[in-house]
Amino acid sequence: MKIKSIILTALIAIAATSGLFAQNKADAKSNNKTLVVYFSWSGNLDKMAHWIADETGGDLRRVTAKEAYPENYNKVADRAKNEKDKGIRPAINVNITKEEMANYDTIYFGFPVWWYDLPMSMWTFLESYDFKGKTIIPFFSHEGSSNGANALPTVQKLAKGATVRTKDALSIRGGIVAKSEKEVRAWVKK
Ligand SMILES: Cc1cc2nc3c(=O)[nH]c(=O)nc-3n(C[C@H](O)[C@H](O)[C@H](O)COP(=O)(O)O)c2cc1C
Q1: Is the shortest distance between the CB of 128 and ligand 1 below 6 Å?
Q2: Which atom, in ligand 1's list, is nearest to the CA of 175?
Q3: Sign of CA dihedral 149, 158, 165, 111
Q4: I want to staple 142 with a disulfide (CB 3.0 to 4.6 A). Which of 14, 63, 113, 147 is the partner?
């Protein structure tokens, strides 16, 4: 009886410290390794990001400027132009700690093209974390700058040490985003 229980205890201990425990750890890690982070002013990237998060099972986080952008198009265009011309990094709200960021290895990174580049809030974001060793997959929307203009080179420049999959980036014209759910999901699968 005693020997049996010693053997049983030993088996449980071995299982807990090797195979089973390692499996649990791997599961916890794999649940947590994809992040979908995006900026959106008029809602297109918000749609794309939700479909991508649903398809990947990744965590979804939205970046917003601490000082909200105006709803008026001319006003937002002026402010965005001024920020870009002066290289202003707006303060941002984003619910990700540096420790949490360290757990992600794949990051879907979404933005609208603004003045042929990333919105400056996304410059702030990329300069706020360490992306070394991570894979960044950009997705974006535009109204003519279908290759993203300067935006993808900017991601490469700012996300130091990351692999930025520029050739696989997803680009969708703003006007057709609402009808593009299938295309977005197919892109994730590919
Ligand atoms: C301030 C501002 C600047 C923009 N600059 C560009 C641009 O340089 N090139 C372009 O193709 N589209 C430009 N657009 C259009 C947006 O990229 C496009 O409408 C996008 O779908 C918006 O995404 P959102 O709805 O997530 O904000 C600009 C839009 C705004 C508001």
Answers
A1: no
A2: 21
A3: negative
A4: 113
List pLDDT tens digits, range 9-37: 554 555 554 444 444 444 444 445 999 99
32-189, which class in CATH?
Answer: alpha beta
Q: What is the pLDDT of residues 120-137, one digit of tens each?
A: 999 999 999 999 999 999
User: Residue type at 142?
Assistant: H
Domain spans of the chain? 1-31, 32-189
Q: Could you tell me if the CB of 50 is within 6 A of ligand 1?
A: no
Task: Decide whether any atom of ligand 1 lies within 6 Å of the 77 Cβ.
Answer: yes
> How many CA within 13 A on the CB side of residue 30?
6
> Which pLDDT does position 10 carry in this prediction?
55
pLDDT-above-70 percentage for the chain: 83
Instruction: Please work out, in degrees rounded to the nearest 5, the angle formed at the alpha carbon of residue 112 by the alpha carbons of 189 and 109.
Output: 45
Q: Nearest residue CA, atom 29 of ligand 1? A: 114
